């Protein structure tokens, strides 16, 4: 059992990424001495993104991990205490709020900012993970630009998959939408737009078995796909693969304590980061399934810190 004394803070930030780090910068500059518990993947999804071209302020391409390192150092420089721990349980009914780390460390806080993010769902085949960031991506808005005049494939059948396929036609010469069923889940209007687009070919009843590519330079050259009705496998030539089978917000921890939507995203008040528990705020992909960008997450992190500061001064 961990014998460390309880750590108390005015602002506890759970999770690190653009939302958490930005919240930390603002809270620390407001002299609130925040504590950030970084979680298992410090830096979040951006640490698996190589080239970042859409973060404001950088005319040259920057690296996702570098950007997160900079945000972390900035948050530390202005007075955030960073703790490498993973919160395994919370109690939002107590005052102050309580959180317990994996090793038993107890944290108490007057306000909490949740920025635990989300993870893209992957197909979970070895070759997909091997080429992640080298032609395999889960974000068309982030990486579509790198596939000008190339052939790409999108896996999925929901709104996200259809939107990604449509977006990719701006760059790619050909987009193949691979779906394991014989009809899409996406809303009808979107489907019509998709069908009308000459650049898109839908590959029905098909699953990806393997991603094919070169070792050096590391890049994707094709896929091995299987038709689930005929059980026939074949190779398909492509230059990039986009996985669009959904995201899972990291909210298991808050079940039965905070209001969520049916997909598990935390629900906040309109134009605010406040959850249904006053003093508990949520920022970034943990509550945002629409934009999912580093810059919008950072913006929400700023909002959460300002709202936490206001909450503290009123209570």
Notes on the structure:
The protein is of the alpha/beta class and 315 residues long. Helix content is 24%, strand content 28%. The chain has 7 helices and 19 strands. The strands form 5 sheets. Strands 1, 2, 5, 6, 7, 8 and 19 form a 7-stranded mixed β-sheet that branches. Strands 10-17-11-12-13 form a 5-stranded parallel β-sheet, covered by helices on one side. Strands 14-15-16 form a 3-stranded antiparallel β-sheet. The longest helix has 21 residues. The model has no long low-confidence stretch (mean pLDDT 95).
Mean pLDDT over the residues: 95
What helical percentage do the residues reach? 10-25%
**Count of runs of 4 or more consecutive helical residues:** 7
Radius of gyration: 21 Å
Structural class: alpha/beta
Percent of residues in beta strands? 25-35%
Number of strand elements: 19
Secondary structure: elements and pairs:
Layout: E1 7-14, H1 18-29, E2 35-37, E3 51-52, E4 62-63, H2 64-77, E5 81-83, E6 87-91, E7 97-101, E8 106-114, E9 118-120, H3 126-130, E10 136-137, H4 140-143, E11 151-155, H5 159-168, E12 174-178, H6 188-196, E13 200-203, E14 206-214, E15 219-227, E16 233-237, E17 240-243, E18 247-249, E19 280-282, H7 294-314
Parallel strand pairs: 1-2, 1-8, 2-5, 8-19, 10-17, 11-12, 11-17, 12-13
Antiparallel strand pairs: 3-4, 6-7, 7-8, 9-18, 14-15, 15-16
Helix pairs in contact: 1-2, 1-7, 5-6
List keywords for this structure.
five-stranded parallel β-sheet, 19 strands, seven-stranded mixed β-sheet, 7 helices, alpha/beta, 24% helix, 315 residues
